[in-house]
Amino acid sequence: MSSRKGREKRQRKKQKSKDIDKIRIESIKLYPALRNEKDGAIYGYIDSKGNFVIKPKYQIAYDFNGSGIGIVQENKLMGGINTKGEYVIKPIYDSINPYKEGRAIYVLNGTMGVIDEVGNIITKKSYSFISDYTGGRAIIGVSNQDGSYTYGYIDREGNEIIPPKLLEANEFNDDVALVKVKDDVYGLINKEGKLLNTYNYGYVSQYGDGVMVFANSFNGPFGYINREGKVVIKPIYKVATGFKDGVAIVSTEEVYNFKYGVINLEGKYVFTPIYSKIEHLGEGRLALGMPIGDDKNIGTSIYAIGDTTGKRLSDFKYLVVGEYEKGLSYGSDSNYTFFIDKNGNIDKSLPIVKGSGELRFVNDIIRANIDFSPYYLTRSGKVIYKPNDTIVLSPKYSATRLKYKPNINYLIYYPEVKGVTDKKTEKDINLRLKEMSYFKPYTEENTKSPETINPDDVLNYNYYGDFSVEFFKKNLLVLNLIGYYYPFGAAHGMPSKKTPSIDLVTGKFYSLGDLFMGGVYWVGELNKIIENMIKTDPQYNDLFDNAFKGITLDQSFYIDENNLYIYFPPYELAPYAAGFVTFKIPFVDIQGMINKEGSFYKSFNI
Prior knowledge:
The N and C termini lie far apart (about 80 Å). The protein is mainly beta. The strands form twelve sheets. Strands 38, 39, 40, 41, 42, 43, 44 and 45 form an eight-stranded mixed beta sheet that branches. Strands 4-5-6-7 form a four-stranded antiparallel beta sheet, with no helix packed on it. The chain has a domain at about 390-600: 2-Layer Sandwich (Heat Shock Protein 90), CATH 3.30.565.40. It has four helices and 48 strands. It comes from Clostridium cylindrosporum DSM 605. InterPro entries: DUF3298 (IPR021729), PdaC/RsiV-like_sf (IPR037126), WG_beta_rep (IPR032774).
């Protein structure tokens, strides 16, 4: 009983700190809002009525902190503005994280530091790594000559509490943090850096509720020890997570068997291990997932809400469930997103919106992020602000985002061009763009999957597609059709990219060869330029050896006013992490080959 009271006291203390920060933020009722333009998505700030107070011009915009500073990105550099849109933190940083506990972590020239709540740099020196603050402390890391890292901690004033000499460091929780002192030796420290106890195991992690996951080796089996190092739950699990709200998620099966249960601090099951997935939702609630579809190994689940005493509160009816905040969560089924109360029921007094995603209260309004579209609502469901779907290219031309979502796991935004004089040409352009935007994965037999995707189909993948305007001038529209395909269970997904160059007068989709004069061996000349770039430009040092075999007649490319860009998908020339390897070739370097009397060149030149 006493341990439960202590846990509840600590939780109240944490919540009080969060509430104080939130009250300060709530006094500033300005909200980041997106607008779609031909130069890309940009953000400004609106008031609670949906009027722009700070005009859209930022590539990134975060909520204002309690001192009235909003972190923004403009021209690829980040800084901080006040509620009048004036910079109070100069836009010189490569990145700045959103404020947490009154501190923001920045990156400048490859190193990291900390900015306080009014914009002052408080770190005395730069570090290779700094985490966000938790419990008044941030983890710092420095890189060593052998490529390894060692870690320590700084306080809210930027002072080193523990120099970076630890092999591992974790966030503070209940005023203590779990660290790795040396191989096979872990320890708990207090906020002053005092070592409270050590644990001689091959693996210790995830401190919570007074206990830690442990194992004799990194591969398990896993159990739990308390702060004194006593084994309180024997190491019998193949999977074990840290305790939260008095419970932990465990499995005695291999990961791919998807059989998870929930135990209490005595090691007793409160939910037997029959679930495909379980998530902590906070405030004493859990999402309990059961597999759906014929293939039980693809990781698709439908969820019910349960509590930490072992009571299931709802039926299995949610495909998406979010964490609880002040008694409310959000969830989605195959058609709608809504708020969920602590009893696991849909709160029908609050908005229910079409699509899937997130709903959260921000001050007295609701922030929605539905089908990757962020907007704001009143409590009654009235739209306060929603981003525009039509992108104005010129007084004559525009491109509208149309949505195709046959299934919760399949969403595409595709372009519809308007303003083409000949309506048949316009129709043909849009039909081709629609076809280019669609995605059909290959089956194991290397054949295309079925043409039709139904709402109740259980897909073994997620797919998201969208587009942006890469370049527009005169009559030439270059679009960037992007996609991301993620097969469930894969280490990562695979991005896709198509960049059609469209003449809005003739309807022609140009190929790379259309840019050059006939009789010129442009393929060979471009190959020479790219080969030289690979040899001389350091940005291509990580390419696979001898991977470039030359461009093709149907080579992927795009242009802007002054340059040609040749690109290749992940894995073709370089590792996945390199993304789309792109070669930028200025027109001045190839002007002798360009057909300046051709329709392609004339489509974007006077």
